[in-house]
Specification:
The structure holds two protein chains of two kinds. Chain A is about 75% helix and about 0% strand. Chain A is mostly helical. Chain B has one domain: P-loop containing nucleotide triphosphate hydrolases (Rossmann fold, 3-Layer(aba) Sandwich), CATH 3.40.50. In chain B, helix 6 packs across helix 7. The radius of gyration of chain B is 19 Å and the shape is globular. The chains are: A mainly alpha, B alpha/beta.
Chain lengths: ~325, ~280
């Protein structure tokens, strides 16, 4: 289905998906290893005293987690959409440029040096992501232009090297630390502080808004670099901005929640199936779609083997693979 | 150039669209293994100019230079007294439409969305197209008889229709100068004739200038007002089709024996083989 890109439709799409997200989020607050009734959830959210213990669970544990899922899902899906436009490649996704490996290495080194999954490791992970972004840019650019295949190759090579480095450092860690790290590598939404949310929130929202300002340039860029230049787009500037924004969004997401897979690749495609390829409707659809998918996945991760938990990346992978195959069959036909 | 400068020039020359004028003055260029010698020509509103010549003669390079995108080593291109090289890419895109061989599209747009991209240089700060932009998109679709394809996916139409869509996108820019590089490659003769005729009609009705690089010598002879013949980076001859299409010259340039007679229907030159 292709929705004509008008201001009204962009607002309609945003509104409809936001409503779905609200519904799904409330459900996520209710469900878990302990099911909380809706009015207790409400008590927990509004801070009234009548909720009791369950309200505390909702407020202190589930709410931050659901908020993290919303922000990380939006960040990864937005980044994936932007990178698919930048690289003009429907297989592009946030980790193709090596950022998740860089973040993982940063976190692992912090763990090795600091001794536990320290509070500093998100910062170390983010620094790792930034360093990787800069490095891949230096490798992959040619006279300012970011030729898509040079960039992808630079990213793949870098990711490869970083994976080797990660394995090396893993051998230096204790077994318990390794297990903690493995959980993080698959994607883990369970460790989040309010301070982290207060930093993540504005970054994701701002990053999305700036990217949205480039939405029409993203459309033209899909036609091709030369075609875009002939239509008046400052290709170098737009490419650099998209690269930076996508990297920052991916970097903060991975720094706080590990490398959650498939989301950045699949949600843009699902959003395209819903609203078409015009980024003025696609970007909000992808961002909200990412939030919805991650909140759902995390709820599953918390309930399927309750009272134990699956890493959320395992859920997205298990659910994502069949969706990917379905999309593949659909486009091949 | 400052927008006010441009506006002053365009106003002070009392130019109506009738007087759109292209002046290419001594543009020269060089790659590592290729040289384009200084070339000049002029064209007026309503004219269709064809650039012909063998492969590798510099036709596409010349076209890209005329668009203002490729910086020549020497020379200038003036469109209505404005030096195209001094404009920003966006200002250029508002005046010059250039369509070359398209990159492969991996994402689906509707034909209408594809053509609408042509309005991008005119959008400025606004994020969405205005009612007037949409009107120009409708106009471009109508001119290229694509209105009934508007809702179809761009990946689902035939190559002839796709070429028309590319032309429609260029027209949607409302350019004063339309530059097309082999717009009829891989098209059947029906579509070839249609595209050329469309270009000539649009140039005449919209009072713009169309410059086309083409291998279709007979279409150029039939429909162009002015022809440039390039060979190995030099413009060997320019003028009306009658003046340029000379059997001996063409045989030399294209390394094949050709005959030039006259199309009985129109009287224009006609190029044929003289036996294989």
């Amino acid at each position: 289905m292709i929705v004509a890109a008008t201001r009204r439709n962009a607002l309609l799409v945003t509104g409809a998906l936001a409503a779905v997200l609200l519904f799904v989020s409330l459900g996520a607050l209710c469900l878990g290893s302990v099911h909380v009734a809706l009015w207790d959830v409400w008590a927990g959210l509004t801070g009234s005293a009548s909720g009791g213990d369950w309200a505390i669970i909702v407020r202190e544990i589930r709410l931050p987690r659901v908020l993290l899922a919303i922000l990380v899902g939006a960040a990864l899906a937005t980044s994936g959409t932007a990178l698919q436009a930048l690289l003009r490649n429907p297989l592009a996704e946030p980790y193709v440029l090596g950022i998740s490996s860089g973040a993982a290495l940063g976190a692992i080194v912090a763990l090795w040096v600091g001794g536990r999954v320290a509070a500093a490791s998100p910062l170390a992970a983010f620094l790792g992501a930034l360093a990787t972004t800069a490095w891949v840019y230096l490798l992959g650019h040619r006279a300012g232009r970011l030729a898509s295949y040079t960039l992808v190759l630079a990213g793949v090579v870098t990711a490869s090297f970083l994976s080797a480095a990660i394995l090396f450092v893993l051998t230096l860690l204790s077994t318990r630390d390794v297990r903690g790290m493995a959980f993080w590598l698959m994607g883990d939404l369970s460790v989040v502080t309010n301070t982290q949310l207060q930093v993540l929130g504005p970054i994701v929202v701002l990053g999305f808004l700036v990217l949205y300002a480039f939405a029409k340039d993203l459309n033209v860029l899909l036609l091709g670099e030369e075609e875009a230049a002939h239509l008046g787009v400052n290709v170098t500037r737009v490419q650099t901005m998209i690269y930076l924004l996508a990297s920052v969004l991916t970097g903060v997401a991975v720094a706080l929640s590990g490398a959650i897979g498939y989301l950045g690749l699949l949600v843009p495609h699902l959003a395209r199936m819903l609203v078409g390829s015009d980024h003025r409707t696609l970007l909000p659809a992808a961002a909200l779609g990412g939030s919805i998918v991650l909140v759902l996945s995390d709820t599953l991760a918390r309930t399927v083997v309750a009272p134990s938990e699956l890493p959320v990346g395992a859920v997205t992978a298990v659910a994502g693979a069949p969706v990917f195959i379905y999309l593949l069959r659909r486009t091949a036909g | 150039m400052a927008a006010s400068e441009i506006a002053t020039i365009e106003r002070s020359e009392n130019l109506r669209r009738d007087d759109v004028r292209l002046q290419v003055k001594s543009v020269a260029f060089g790659y590592t293994h290729f040289e384009l010698a200084a070339t000049s020509f002029e064209a007026r509103a309503g004219q269709l100019v064809a650039i012909v010549g063998p492969n590798g003669s510099g036709k596409s390079t010349l076209l890209e230079i005329i668009s203002g995108h490729l910086r020549p080593r020497a020379g200038n291109i003036f469109l209505n007294e404005i030096d195209l090289q001094r404009l920003s890419p966006r200002e250029r895109a508002q005046r010059v439409g250039l369509a070359r061989q398209e990159s492969i599209l991996l994402f689906s747009f509707t034909v209408r969305e594809f053509v609408r991209q042509g309005r991008h240089p005119h959008l400025g700060r606004q994020l969405f197209e205005s009612a007037e932009d949409e009107r120009w998109v409708d106009w471009a679709l109508e001119k290229t008889t694509l209105t009934k394809f508007a809702a179809r996916g761009i990946l689902e139409i035939s190559s002839g229709e796709f070429q028309r869509a590319v032309l429609a996108r260029t027209l949607a820019q409302r350019p004063q100068l339309v530059l097309l590089d082999e717009p009829t490659a891989n098209l059947d003769i029906g579509y070839q004739i249609e595209i050329f005729r469309l270009l000539r009609d649009v140039a005449a009705s919209e009072r713009c200038i169309a410059v086309v690089v083409t291998h279709e010598l007979n279409l150029a002879a039939e429909l162009a007002d002015y022809v440039l013949l390039l060979d190995s980076g030099r413009c060997l001859r320019q003028g009306t089709p009658e003046e340029v299409f000379e059997a001996e010259l063409l045989s030399h340039v294209f390394r094949a024996r050709v005959l030039v007679d006259h199309n009985p229907a129109s009287g224009r030159p006609r190029v044929t083989w003289s036996g294989c």
